[in-house]
């Protein structure tokens, strides 16, 4: 079975990711989709391993403040996908 991971970082990524998920599933309904999702991606069949809330930030100072958390999450994702 083909497995595909999709990572959305905020609401517009969730919208685009949902469209991508729908298109992929239309091509092959046996594809297993998972990733960092919002409600739209989940609704179309992408299994959530984490919420986009883990990555969503607005503004330069918010990114800097959240950078350690984002870097840590990056390594969590790498470990998760290495196990798969």
Report on the architecture of this protein:
There is one protein chain. The protein has 84 residues and is of the alpha/beta class. The protein is built from 3 helices and 3 strands, in the order βαβαβα. A 3-stranded parallel β-sheet has the order 1-2-3. α1 (11-27) links the parallel β1 and β2. The longest helix is centred in the last third of the chain and has 24 residues, at 60-83. The protein is flat and about 40 Å long. The two termini are 12 Å apart. The model has no long low-confidence stretch (mean pLDDT 93).
Topology:
Blueprint: E1 3-7, H1 11-27, E2 32-37, H2 39-43, E3 47-51, H3 60-83
Element-by-element helix/strand order: EHEHEH
Low-pLDDT segments: none
Q: Main sheet, how many strands, which sense, barrel?
A: 3 strands, parallel
Note the gap between the termini.
Answer: 12 Å
How many beta-strand elements?
3
How much of the polypeptide forms β-strand, as a percent range? 15-25%
Rg on CA atoms, Å: 14 Å
Mean pLDDT: 93
Q: Level of helix content?
A: 40-55%
Strand order of the largest sheet: 1-2-3
Q: Count of DSSP helices?
A: 3
Going by helix content, strand content and strand pairing, the class is alpha/beta
Keyword list:
84 residues; 3-stranded parallel sheet; flat
In short:
The chain is of the alpha/beta class and 84 residues long.
């Amino acid at each position: 079975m083909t497995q595909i991971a999709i990572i959305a970082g905020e609401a517009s990524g969730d919208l685009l990711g949902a469209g991508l998920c729908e298109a992929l599933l239309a091509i092959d309904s046996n594809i297993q989709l998972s990733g960092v999702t919002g409600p739209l991606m989940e609704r179309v069949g992408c299994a959530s391993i984490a919420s986009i809330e883990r990555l969503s930030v607005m503004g330069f100072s918010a990114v800097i403040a959240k950078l350690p958390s984002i870097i840590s999450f990056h390594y969590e994702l790498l470990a998760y996908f290495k196990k798969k």
